[in-house]
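Possible regression after last week's pipeline update?

I re-ran a chain I had predicted before the update to compare outputs. Posting the input and the new output here so someone can diff against the archived version. Not blocking, just want to make sure nothing changed silently.
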Amino acid sequence: MAPPPGPYSGTSTLALVARASAFSFGLVYGSIKLKYLKVARTSRAKYKA
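New output (post-update):
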């Protein structure tokens, strides 16, 4: 007999919400990090010249 599914097993609503929130957090974090790196690169190039 298989154990009952856990909260993050992929079959519950909580698992779907957790997966969706983790995905959206990753998108937001990635876009902020890319913006920061772009600004840091341009400011570093400005100070070198």
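Follow-up from reviewer: compared with the archived run. The first helix runs from residue 13 to 48. Marking as no regression found.
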